[in-house]
Design brief:
Blueprint: E1 6-7, H1 17-22, H2 33-50, E2 56-60, H3 63-74, E3 80-85, H4 88-99, E4 103-108, H5 117-126, E5 132-136, E6 138-139, E7 144-145, H6 148-156, E8 161-165, E9 184-188, E10 199-204, H7 206-214, H8 224-232, H9 242-280, E11 294-298, H10 305-314, E12 318-319, E13 321-322, E14 331-335, H11 342-358, H12 367-379
Parallel strand pairs: 1-12, 3-4, 3-5, 5-8, 8-9
Antiparallel strand pairs: 2-10, 6-7, 9-10, 11-14, 13-14
Helix pairs in contact: 2-9, 5-6, 9-11, 9-12, 11-12
This protein binds pyridoxal-5'-phosphate.
Length: about 375
């Protein structure tokens, strides 16, 4: 058979055809009215996705660059912060903050466990000197989503700011920045925003801007004040990733065409179909609050999870993701993120069933696929 590649990972995600083809066009210069018009259109489109009236800045970096930008632009050495570590990406907040000499109170959760707004409130009351809370909308390593709306209510009552990593979640699960009182929201380009890796986006609330003005951590490349001054002139401080921004315009056109609500509904349907499929196979999810971004599934006892993922990838070319760090071999992750459709879910589940059978696991072929088909048929629009 031809080796047809199915990208079923939670970043990078598959790209729409027009997003791919526009990257092949000749490059244009960035200090021109022609590029500025595209740049401003993308900046406006991102405000729509973020649910904010604030400026959204376009950084040339992977998502982690925007995480670093959030830290260096708002804090000063020795500041006390809370980081919520429910997996690999929440853990990264702690690593970045410690690298910059912040005083970190790290809340370490079991992967997939929830952390409620009431628990956060207790932490904040215990230490009124906390300057910032670092949270994750969708913890991509565990498939869990957190109550960002609740965190926003609690943090808004304090002097602290709420900083949210929305890198895999934004566009796939609700997260209206202004309405939910988020102070710094970031995301990356290679997840629900449907372009290649390489751009990251960040916005600051008026409360966060007061922090930006006073922050003393060293910053240069990611200086938000420089970004703001340049955005007023419809440009960026440094050479932007021109082709990626043009690709983002194309992808935003698609998002505007189905609408943000349509995009969220799309992810809900794909997620429900996936969950129905894996549950019909008798498998269990890792997350207590599973998100609509990806589904992390526990590897059944007696099976080698590393081999399962390797077989799906090398035999069937179905590139789902394995578990990371302590969960390597213990979970696998099926994404339903970005430019995927119902038939990608069917492909994932069919490849999963075939792989389980290959590994000698008792599986009734077609059972997971049928459960997903039923969800898709009822919801298809
Ligand atoms: C993908 C991802 C990141 C990391 O982004 P990079 O682009 O690899 O730097 C951070 N946080 C979350 C939740 C992610 O899903």
């Amino acid at each position: 058979m031809f080796k047809k590649y199915y990208l079923l990972s939670p970043g990078p995600t598959p790209l729409p055809e027009d997003v791919l083809s526009v990257a092949a066009e000749p490059i244009i210069h960035h200090r021109t009215p022609e590029f500025s018009a595209i740049f401003m259109e993308v900046s406006e489109g991102l405000k729509y996705v973020f649910g904010t009236k604030q400026d959204v800045f376009i950084l040339t970096s992977s998502g982690t660059g925007a995480m670093e930008a959030a830290v260096v632009n708002t804090l000063s050495p020795g500041d006390k912060v809370i980081t919520i570590n429910g997996g690999k990406f929440g853990e990264r907040w702690g690593k970045i903050c410690r690298s910059y000499g912040l005083n970190v109170r790290e809340i370490v959760l079991e992967w997939g466990e929830d952390f409620t707004k009431d628990q956060l409130e207790v932490e904040l009351k215990a230490d009124p000197e906390i300057k910032a809370v670092f949270a994750t909308l969708s913890e991509t390593s565990s498939g869990a989503v957190y109550d960002i709306q609740g965190y926003g209510e609690v943090v808004a009552e304090t002097e602290a700011i709420l900083v949210v990593d929305g890198i895999s979640g934004l566009g796939a699960t609700p997260c209206p920045m202004d309405e939910w009182k988020i102070d710094v929201l970031i995301t990356g380009s290679q997840k629900s925003l449907m372009i290649p890796p390489g751009l990251a986006y960040i916005a600051f609330s008026p409360k966060a801007w007061k922090f930006v003005e006073k922050a003393k951590l060293p910053r240069f490349y990611f200086d938000a004040i420089a970004a703001k001054k340049n955005l007023e002139k419809q440009t960026t401080p440094w050479t932007p990733a021109i082709s990626l921004i043009i690709q983002q315009k194309k992808a935003l056109d698609r998002i505007k065409a189905i609408g943000l609500d349509g995009l969220l509904e799309h992810h809900r349907i794909l997620a429900e179909a996936t969950r129905a499929g894996v549950k019909a196979l008798g498998l269990e999810l890792l997350a207590k609050r599973p998100g609509n971004i990806l589904t992390a599934v526990k590897v059944p006892a007696g099976l080698d999870g590393v081999k399962l993922v390797r077989t799906m990838q090398s035999k069937y070319y179905a590139y789902i993701a394995g578990g990371q760090d302590p969960y390597k071999g213990k979970i696998f992750r099926i994404a339903h993120l970005g430019y995927m459709c119902g038939f990608e879910i069917i492909t994932s589940l069919a490849a999963l069933e075939m792989t389980l059978a290959d590994l000698g696991y008792p599986v009734e072929m077609g059972k997971g696929v049928a459960a997903a088909e039923n969800v898709l048929r009822e919801n298809w629009k």
